[in-house]
């Protein structure tokens, strides 16, 4: 399983540490990561993977709830969506 995680919100300390810790706790590996601060807003995109088949609804719910604790919006999408778009 391969997925894309995005994180957006007002910049504050601990976002990368918190999100990467949550990703690990969910059993996902970070394959690639990019983050920047645009004006006062933090943005991050991570490509994650797992050898296990994980339920995206559960992952999305867990990440959404966790994002609230950091005051950011976290989303996860299957990389298969992006692969399919390029094959059209």
From TrEMBL:
<dbReference type="InterPro" id="IPR002912">
    <property type="entry name" value="ACT_dom"/>
</dbReference>
<dbReference type="Pfam" id="PF13740">
    <property type="entry name" value="ACT_6"/>
</dbReference>
<comment type="subunit">
    <text>Homodimer.</text>
</comment>
<dbReference type="InterPro" id="IPR022986">
    <property type="entry name" value="UPF0237_ACT"/>
</dbReference>
<dbReference type="InterPro" id="IPR045865">
    <property type="entry name" value="ACT-like_dom_sf"/>
</dbReference>
<dbReference type="InterPro" id="IPR050990">
    <property type="entry name" value="UPF0237/GcvR_regulator"/>
</dbReference>
<protein>
    <recommendedName>
        <fullName>UPF0237 protein STRUR_1782</fullName>
    </recommendedName>
</protein>
<comment type="similarity">
    <text>Belongs to the UPF0237 family.</text>
</comment>
<feature type="domain" description="ACT">
    <location>
        <begin position="4"/>
        <end position="77"/>
    </location>
</feature>
